[in-house]
Hints:
The chain is built from two helices and five strands. The protein is of the alpha+beta class. The chain is globular and about 30 Å long.
Amino acid sequence: MNKAFFARVSGRVQGVGFRYACLNKARSLKISGWVRNAGDGDVEVWAEGGDTDALMEWLHEGPPYAHVVSVDFSFHEPKGLYKDFSVRF
Length: 89
């Protein structure tokens, strides 16, 4: 585990299954962390370990009914606090 990022995904990303599609994608890539809806309509993601590059690429597309306008990333040292990937409420 040597990479971690926080991402903020903007566009039509709430109400389209984005969080659960992200959960499935992250778990398939052996990534730990979380995804949650932000109060302003964006989706936020914390991801570390696994194939973070593939998840970063996927976030630009999202699930079929999403329309991603932008993704802002900030890169961090992994925290090692998460054993799995989850949806936060």
